[in-house]
Amino acid sequence: MTLKKKILIGLGIFLILLLIAAVLAPFFIDINTFKPRIEKTLGHYLNAKVELGKLELSVITGVGANIQGIKISNPPGFPEAPFLEIEQARIYLGALRSLFGNPRITVTLTKPKIQIYENNQKELSITKLLKPQPPKSPSPPPGTSVRDQLPKGMLGGFIIRSSAFVEIEDGELTYFQADGTTPKLQNIDLELGPLAISDPIHLKLKAGLSPFTKNNVTLQGPIDLDLKLSNPLLSK
Q: At residue 50, what are phi and psi to the nearest 5 degrees?
């Protein structure tokens, strides 16, 4: 048997073992053990409490993960009602083979509910959500492209080849203004993508605006948008 043939056989055996391990992984690995670490990491950046529901890993129909419930509180100084509640979040990376080609990452949020509050100082709860972080490193020299700023090696290549899509199903957004006015978007269905460094962005939005009156003007009705947006990274 030639060396080349031995290498090919060895590579084939390795790929088969890798596939078997990927299929069996969800039955032997409980990713919920990582939940406290994920919550702690998010809490490091957010001025709010983060709670994650049950985590589920899937590789049978493609590599992905489900989160059965996400809750993020409002920052201090605002009502205790959650800033964000999501019934279910799904992150799907596609079939295993796509990870070595052009990965398509899809994030689907089912029934997300966002509540934004305005206080008497006209400050919004969402603006207080992020904790102050240390100053960023110096800006790259003029003319530096986005590709030049990506991590080197496999991670950078993965980012270049990847495209991400965000989907929202039956969402709700409520804005509690200091004067008592409460505009609300409901039945929000959103498709956004691809989010990549080399493609324009397509946005499709359908929602219903509940009736509200301000300055003697009443607004209500359906919203239906279909836009193609320029990608700010294309010119960098």
A: -115, 130
